[in-house]
Design brief:
The chain is built from 18 helices and 12 strands. By secondary structure, it is an alpha/beta fold. β1 and β2 form a beta hairpin. α5 crosses α6, α14 crosses α17 and α17 packs across α18. The longest helix has 26 residues. The radius of gyration is 23 Å and the shape is globular. The N terminus is likely disordered. Bound molecules: nicotinamide-adenine-dinucleotide. Nicotinamide-adenine-dinucleotide binds next to α9 and β7.
Length: 473
Amino acid sequence: MSDQQQQYSFFGAVEKSFDKAAKFTKWDKGLLEQIKQCNAVYRMHFPVKIGDQIEVIKAYRVQHSHHKLPCKGGIRFATSVNLDEVMALAALMTYKCAIVNVPFAGAKGGISIDPKKYTPYELEKITRRYTSELIKKNFIGPGIDVPAPDYGTGEREMAWIVDTYASMRPGEIDALGCVTGKPVTQGGVRGRREATGLGVFYGIREVLNMPEVMGKLGLSTGVEGKTVIVQGLGNVGFHAAKFFREGGAKVICIAEHDGAVYNADGINETDLFEHKKQTGSVRNFAGAKTIATSNEALELECDILIPAALENVINGENAPRIKAKIIGEAANGPLTPEADEIFAAKGVLVVPDMYLNAGGVTVSYFEWLKNLSHVRYGRMEKRFTENQNRQMLEQVEASTGKKVTGKIRQEIIHGPEEADLVYSGLEETMITATREIMDAWKANPGIPDMRTAAYVVAINKVGTSYAELGIFP
Ligand code: NAD
């Protein structure tokens, strides 16, 4: 299918959600139109020698907005990559960054290949060539546009990108900040790997702590004892399940592509992951009941359902049978607009992807700051804080005559490591974003759902940026 034929599908759907929310804002038509459009679209073809053949590779980078710089967004390697999808994902990045107060504008990139068909050496050649194409057109740089991983890419590809960039920009002192999601040894930050799943946990926990919202859903407040179903035991699903279990919830069912497992007393995701590694499947996990399909698992009784695998898994067909009271969209686009309407009518709370899975970009922001500051988080303050804490504790011990020992002593004295600070920054970000969205929803009861409320928050922030730039009075 050509790019022209695919135009106005996914991107069209994003525009539709935007228009639905724009009605609840005060911005004039011209400004709204400027926010909606993709500012710069770069479609490229380049040759790469694979074996003894020349292959022409098709790739994209879209910068949706320039209201802040740099632009930010992942790079996808998949055969399904097309211009419409990249434009839609770039637009979503603008709104996502605005919601979580990360000072970037949205972008997205993609290479239309099946990464499984290539050797690591061939993938490296493709990634490095793509990077040099971006450099040639000034579409990458720590102050211009900063990619990150997405489907089909990870730390390895980010390491190739930063190495290519640094070697073509000799002497550029902030070169490490040209891409995020790098391995820690190449300028990455601790906590990035689990960031999205942890952000999902922090976001839903904050909603669970709102008595008014829980009252409407007929649920008690707090994470403790809530029943959770997770679809997808990949990066996001695994970590979401882990943090919910550690937070006191019962993860009663975990679904994978070939079936699901159920245990009313809870499933340990780490043991299940190990079982999957050894047997190639989640099925037949000790002490749990095997469920034939992933789709069946979605329809089981639970308090919180977390789709963390694919898009469009909950739609007009199965939404009426879903029994969860809260759906936390950890994946990108797991619900169709038809499902949204059904849940709004049923009074199910849908916590939208656009903000709930923003943990990755939030911690990417911390990585970029680390790269620009050229210092590891915690390096300057860890020992200082520990000395202060020790002195305070010793004063208290001297005045009370009681000695604090063991684990509690260590916890009181402990100065922050990089991961502690990253977790703390992510927690603050997700709590603030949840409250801002809920406040916007409360302020205008005409807003039909939390997704629209999230768009309203995003549009208002991007609109304010443009207005402050003086482009629109
Ligand atoms: P992943 O590839 O690590 O995990 C996906 C998992 O889903 C795999 O284990 C796969 O086997 C499983 N799966 C596939 N089909 C399934 C099905 N029908 N039922 C149940 N499980 C199925 O990917 P990920 O990084 O965890 O991303 C998952 C989703 O979260 C995607 O939509 C992605 O765009 C989104 N997301 C990821 C991040 C991130 O930081 N990784 C950030 C934001 C959004």
